[in-house]
Amino acid sequence: MSTADPREPQTGPAPASGAPLLPELMRRATAHLAPVVPLLTELGELFAAQGHELALVGGPVRDAFLGRLSPDLDFTTSATPDETLAILRPWADAHWDIGREFGTIGARRGEHTVEVTSYRADAYDGQSRKPVVAFGDNLGDDLVRRDFTVNAMAMRLPSMEFVDPYAGLADLAARRLRTPGPPEVSFGDDPLRMMRACRFAAQLGVDVAPEVREAMRAMAPSIEIVSAERVRDELTKLLLAPQPRAGLRLLVESGLADHVLPELPALKLEVDEHHRHKDVYEHSLTVLDQAIALEGPPDGPESSVPGPDLVLRLAALLHDVGKPATRRFEAGGGVSFHHHEVVGAKLTAKRLKALRFDKDTVKAVSRLVELHLRFHGYGDGAWTDSAVRRYVTDAGPLLPRLHRLTRSDSTTRNARKAARLSQTYDALEVRIEALMEAEELAKVRPELDGNQIAAVLGIRPGPVLGRAYAHLLEVRLDRGIIGQDAVEQELRDWWAQQPESSAEPTGP
């Protein structure tokens, strides 16, 4: 690494083990930035004309070297937020200053969105959940306070001079994650950076440097000063990465998961000497991998579960979190996890709520966890059409995800057993398709609506009508479509057994 004063950024990377790849990375970056070079030059000239520095920085620079163009362009500048706004206002089609408190002004011109942030240094005071913002006065100070060397690269504008004082490009070529300064200082500035390290392990396939891992283990408890919303957002990005397993392992091994997702390390149940149950932690990571493999293409129909799908991935990761609380060693030498799906659904909902996930996500994921064992009652082939209807109705719009979660939950190494389970589920899906086509199960309703029920029984809307409706729904699920005459007779038979039937009819 260069020993130059970080206040005087150096061009070009320091020599490193990944050096042979650097010329190719430079060529790739140049090619991928070509479409936005006119915009970069124009913005650089606008700021220079007002006496300010401007540089493309962070993710867009890193992504250019990875051969991809970032949808948003991030800049850093010597200008204050007010000065930045004055420059961008006449240039942009639209602008906003909701990040002004943190020195950031956003703007859009054509198809491009830009964010320009004043040179700054974020730090926590050790107690607050929000960073304390202090603006800097030079690019070197700004870069040293960034999270990792691969994000501490910049390109001065309009000159397009590459600035890399901390050998970020060499680290990128070597797939290595380091911090520009001591990791303890970086994580002290913002503890969320420790979770970001886990996310980059998943997104970029990088190896986290030993000193960074050690600092993460030592400072893991400090993640608790970060707001649940920021933790949630990082966890979401990690799970939506192409290969989240590496990031999740680091989350657990660093001790961070003990504070943000304790249900995950809790899956590391001690396997007894007779190995009467599989390693639940490793099983859960494998289920996640297998669920990801079953996702549809991003532009596929909803029935294919287009990936990356957060609900499916959360359910796959958390489907067995009820096992630690329900494990019992039986007298005959076996082990049981009775009702772990019910317990797991409650634990899942509690954790996702604590992480401030939205209500729909909490409901969907916990429901999948609750239903993930339902299929195993089908294995003996004894399911009636009624049971299949209930399976579909209980899953509702989650059925495509439930199909994939259930298939992913088979991690046996016994090829014959795995094939048998797959064939059995194939048969269930065939039955579901046949019933859905014949009976429109996706829109299953009683054969009589509320008005018709009220007319048959001579009652008004209210709790009794609700009970009658629920009874006819059960009939629909148990017996399928039986016709209006038969269902009206079924309704009258049920009504004859109700205490309210002896009262005088009140009319609909």
Automatic annotation (TrEMBL):
<dbReference type="InterPro" id="IPR006675">
    <property type="entry name" value="HDIG_dom"/>
</dbReference>
<dbReference type="InterPro" id="IPR003607">
    <property type="entry name" value="HD/PDEase_dom"/>
</dbReference>
<dbReference type="Pfam" id="PF01743">
    <property type="entry name" value="PolyA_pol"/>
</dbReference>
<dbReference type="Pfam" id="PF01966">
    <property type="entry name" value="HD"/>
</dbReference>
<dbReference type="GO" id="GO:0046872">
    <property type="term" value="F:metal ion binding"/>
</dbReference>
<dbReference type="GO" id="GO:0008033">
    <property type="term" value="P:tRNA processing"/>
</dbReference>
<keyword id="KW-0694">RNA-binding</keyword>
<dbReference type="InterPro" id="IPR032828">
    <property type="entry name" value="PolyA_RNA-bd"/>
</dbReference>
<dbReference type="Pfam" id="PF12627">
    <property type="entry name" value="PolyA_pol_RNAbd"/>
</dbReference>
<keyword id="KW-0547">Nucleotide-binding</keyword>
<keyword id="KW-0548">Nucleotidyltransferase</keyword>
<keyword id="KW-0808">Transferase</keyword>
<dbReference type="InterPro" id="IPR002646">
    <property type="entry name" value="PolA_pol_head_dom"/>
</dbReference>
<keyword id="KW-0479">Metal-binding</keyword>
<dbReference type="InterPro" id="IPR006674">
    <property type="entry name" value="HD_domain"/>
</dbReference>
<feature type="domain" description="HD/PDEase">
    <location>
        <begin position="276"/>
        <end position="440"/>
    </location>
</feature>
<dbReference type="InterPro" id="IPR014065">
    <property type="entry name" value="tRNA_adenylyltransferase"/>
</dbReference>
<protein>
    <submittedName>
        <fullName>Poly(A) polymerase</fullName>
        <ecNumber>2.7.7.19</ecNumber>
    </submittedName>
</protein>
<dbReference type="GO" id="GO:0003723">
    <property type="term" value="F:RNA binding"/>
</dbReference>
<dbReference type="GO" id="GO:0005524">
    <property type="term" value="F:ATP binding"/>
</dbReference>
<feature type="region of interest" description="Disordered">
    <location>
        <begin position="1"/>
        <end position="20"/>
    </location>
</feature>
<keyword id="KW-0067">ATP-binding</keyword>
<keyword id="KW-0819">tRNA processing</keyword>
<dbReference type="GO" id="GO:0042245">
    <property type="term" value="P:RNA repair"/>
</dbReference>
<dbReference type="InterPro" id="IPR050124">
    <property type="entry name" value="tRNA_CCA-adding_enzyme"/>
</dbReference>
<dbReference type="GO" id="GO:1990817">
    <property type="term" value="F:poly(A) RNA polymerase activity"/>
</dbReference>
<dbReference type="InterPro" id="IPR043519">
    <property type="entry name" value="NT_sf"/>
</dbReference>
<keyword id="KW-0692">RNA repair</keyword>
<keyword id="KW-0460">Magnesium</keyword>
